[in-house]
Amino acid sequence: MTMIDTLFGLIPQASRGEQWVARDLQLINWGGYDGHHRVRLSPGATLLCGESGSGKSTLMDSYIALIMPHTMPFNGASNGGIVGRPRGKDQRNIVSYARGKIDESRTAGETKARVLRGDGRDTWSAIAMTWVDQTGKTFTAVRAWYVPSAARSVDDLVQLRATCDNTFDLRMLEQASKNRLADQAVKALGLRPHNTDKEYVARLHTALGIGAAGDGNKAVALLGRIQAGQQITTVDALYKTMVLEEPSTLATADEVVKQFDELSNTRIQMQTAQQQVNALSPIRGHRRAICDANEQIQMIDDIGTFNAPSSTAGLWCLGKRVELLEAVRADLETRRNSAKSEFESASVVAEAAVAERDAVKETLRVSGGDRLANALREHEAAERRLGPIRQARSRLDNHLKVLGRTAADKDEFAALVEQARSMLADEKARESARDEFADARSHVKDLEKRLTAMGAERKTALAHRNNIPNDLQQARAELAEAAGLTLEQMPFVAELIEVRTEFEPWREAFNLALGGFATRILIDTAHLDNFRAKINSVRTARRIQFEGVPTGLRDQISLNDRELPGRLEYRNSPFTAWLKNELAQRFRYVCVESPRALGHHSMALTISGQTSDGRRGAHGGQGRRNVLGFTNNRLLKLLDEQINALEEETAGAAKRLEHADAALKSFENHRLAYSVVAELAWGQVDVDSVIAERDRWAGIIDDVQSGNPEISRLQDLAKKLDAKVKDLGGARARAEVKAQDTQNAFSLRDTETEDTLQALNDAVESGQDVSEQHRDYLTELFSTNDGGDAPPEKALDWFDMAISQVAKLITAQRQTAEAAISGARRSLAIAFSSFVERWPNPNLGTDPDASYGDFERVLDELEASQLHELQEQWRDSLLKLSGNDLTSLDSELNAAIREIKDRIEPINQILAGLAFSDDDHRLRIDVRDSHTAVRAGFRNELRAVRQTIDQAAGDTEREQAYLRMSKVINRIRRNAPDFGDLVDVRNHIRISAEKLNAADEHVALYDHIGEKSGGESQELVAFIVGSALRYQLGDGNAERPRYAPVFLDEALIKADARYTGRAIQAWRGLGFQLIVGAPNDKNSAIEPHVDAQYLILKTAQSRSWAKPIVGVPEGEGQ
Is there a contact between 48 and 1075 (Cβ–Cβ < 8 Å)? Predict the structure, then answer.
């Protein structure tokens, strides 16, 4: 490529001059640049140098604020090349630049920024850049912000985005700023305002020719990354990041995923339709059940009740009853006639038997039968008295056995009765026996209660493992629960101390000396106020003493074992140090062996528990329960001994109760026996006298009968005739009753038959009738209750009973039908509700009656067409996805790799015209394929899935093909872990740079940029990035880029003048205009290769300005 030197720098000789270069940059109130500033830029290369913090990057950031998106951070050099993140509060931003933030100060805990302007008042800021092309045409872009005093973020600002096709003096905005940059005021200055960033950026890209095919955002983003000096370590990453945009394979994969999701949606709709059919299929059965049940209820309503003659059921019953009554009447008539004949015959026979008996008795009386009759009566009376007297005597003998007595005669019995009455009158003996029993029983109960209480106490002691009484522990637990504290946070003093083994005999004395202090609860003072507030409403049966004490004190107290505190062991706890100190001060009793030694000490204690405190003292209380100790082993042992003693005592008391109970029962048995004896008289138990009387009358009967043998025969005959008369009389009476009963029954049935027949005739004459359907229904109901072949009377009874049973059956059938309707309606409501819940539809209700038609239409549509259409659509979509989309993706993967390789060629053509390293060498971009087993397997699976779908003949095969395809599709989704490796073809190749000599022979390979020196890496990056920028700007095939400015913030400071010059030459050889920022100590290598140079200075008041070292004359570039 032949280059010529022009006012705009080196440009290709064949260029038509279509290029925009930045001519000047204007600032007003931007960062440290207070007021208006203007920097003229060379068309070739301009250097901005200065000390760190002088304001170089502030100028660079103004360019970012003017043309780049809000995601590009300011101050790329100082921010370490961070890109792609919105400007945050910790980065420089429009508000801080507009106010000229200097630093921050902290006063009274509040951070305040020190600014050059806008402190408590409104201010404004503006940036403008003017570009010019080779024809002299100019274009200016303006960004301005009105900053209210209360503004905290960009959203609080009034923003101006404007352009004009001419030059513009930024100072003219001063008047518009007074109107808060209103559109009318801006238009009056010749500017064209743009309401949105999108509109503004589109105007910039169109006017300045930024971006190929209208996509200027990528080009501007690359300009931002170049300015920020983004660090990339490999040629491969550099080229893929800078040059290659997102390949079409990603969009194709997205389209495949989209088509598959549509297919899945169709499948879901098909499955949903099938599920809907399954959900609604039962409703027809429910509807039929409702209709059948309604017909049953209608039938029951039509026939009416049996007790209403006007009803169908009543009319049918009348007819049936007439039929049965006529049969009963005929049967009764036959039975009546038969009973009448039987009565007449029985009367004749009975009268003959009476005449015969009377004749025999008269003969017997004449033969002496009166004396015999009297003897028989008396003998029978004696026999009757003998039974009760024997029973009374047997009862008396049983009680006599209890008493150990006998009563053989009247005198002995009289003496026994006297003794019984005397004994029953003695109440003291009875009370004595009862008192003895009551005392024994009360004693046993008391012992059992004590044993139960002691067992409970032992169980509680096992749970707590301390010696504190149960009521105190219960009260502490209630207070702890109310206060939200644990028991460990509320220890009793006694739980924290134990008597040392060698001083065990003093345990009782120590318990007496400590007294109530041992059962005091200790609480951390930090919890005391809250504890008092929380427990105030708690009521406990036992009063609790507590004390707030400091915790965590150092244990530095030395104790003397001659005193009580020194003879104790202490459990390690937060309260221990305080407790030792408290005991040492309040209970410093000297332990003495004799009470005579008590007066020798201010405070002393004897082993019996007597204390002395000066002239005061205390004694007594021995035998109290021990409360001291870390454990309650001693208490458990004592409780076991007491329980054993109580068990022995209880066993003895139980034996005493058993004896008392036996004595009381014996006394009561004797008393009962005596009471029976006292109630009897001798005549009630004198069996021998009654037997003697019975035997005497038996002797008289024998005498009479032995003297006249004929009397016995006549007596026997008279007895037989009496029995015969009695039997015949009974038969006659029964025959009479039977005849009368049958006559009465016949009369009743006859009347009933006539009445029923009349009622039936009346009903028929009134036009009532029973339909065949109703008759069949009623006949079927009575078929199991018609009495079968039973007699007419029985059949009628069965019919009468059947009426109530059938009525109950009808009621049950009605209830069953109503329940069936209710259940079916409930099932319909559930089905409808479930359907609407799963598939909401505002046009569908859930009423089982009103909505049934809608749901049946839905079911009909699903069964008739929708499900079938969805199944066809599912098959077509599956074949389409296989035939088109999967094929397209497979082809696109191959085509995208070829396209990347094809795009390398124009970049290499640009690089071929630029000397690299020296005039005899060039740089070339090489690309090679990167194969992996994962990608190969994926491509094979892609083709296999297509084949599987093509071969699928039935629903089962298509479903299997779908499931297999879903696994493939899930791998090419954006969020899939291997999406980038499979679909992004940029990962399918590896890019490197090759250094060639004049003969196109290989000299060196450049892969890892970081392995090169600073100068080499700068030159390499310049060549590759420059060519990439040409490509992104859309000028890859042109002789020069239409948009020339490139800002480099501290990007050319790592090499000597030779390599820096070659890097700058590379940029300029590609047709770019350079604006380079560098610190003072790094600019010497750059100065020989720039056309203009500015020194950025800052005053002591933090105000910056650009001092031209090598300036650009006015008019240059126009």
Answer: yes
3-class DSSP state of 949: helix
Position 579 scores a pLDDT of 92
Q: What is the pLDDT of residue 255?
A: 83
Determine the average pLDDT of the residues in 337-345.
Answer: 71
Pairing of strands 611-613, 603-606: antiparallel
Measured CA to CA, the distance from residue 678 to residue 823 in angstroms comes to: 78
- For residue 441, CA distances in Å to 432, 445, 659 come to 14, 6, 11
Residue with tokens 């395809």: 965
For 788-829, write each residue's pLDDT tens digit: 567 877 777 777 777 778 788 888 888 888 898 888 889 988
For 787, left (φ over 0), alpha (ψ -120 to 50), or beta?
left
pLDDT at 589 (0 to 100) = 94
Distances 489 to 471, 474, 574 between C-alpha atoms, Å: 19, 15, 9
- Of 18-22, 588-592, 629-633, least confident by mean pLDDT is 629-633
Question: What percent of the chain is modeled with pLDDT above 70?
Answer: 80
At 1012, list the tokens: 């090169």
Terminal CA-to-CA distance of the chain, rounded, Å?
26
CA-CA distances (angstroms) from residue 195 to 143, 159, 322, 431, 1093?
12, 9, 105, 118, 36
User: Helix (H, G, I), strand (E, B), or coil: what is residue 930?
Assistant: coil
**CA separation for the pair 719, 389 (Å, rounded):** 30
CB neighbour list of residue 390: distance below 8 Å, 6 or more residues apart? 687
Residue 139 three-state SS: strand
Q: Pick the more confident residue, 874 or 247.
A: 247
- 924: nearest Cα among 897, 951, 905: 905
Alpha helices in 34-103 (DSSP H): 56-67, 94-99
Per-residue confidence band for 1012, with pLDDT thresholds at 50, 70 and 90: low
| Residue 1: predicted pLDDT | 40
Residue type, 303: I
Q: Which two tokens stand for residue 804?
A: 């109530």
Residues in a beta bridge with 9: 6
Averaged pLDDT, 998-1022: 74
pTM of this structure: 0.47
31: left (phi over 0), alpha (psi -120 to 50) or beta: left
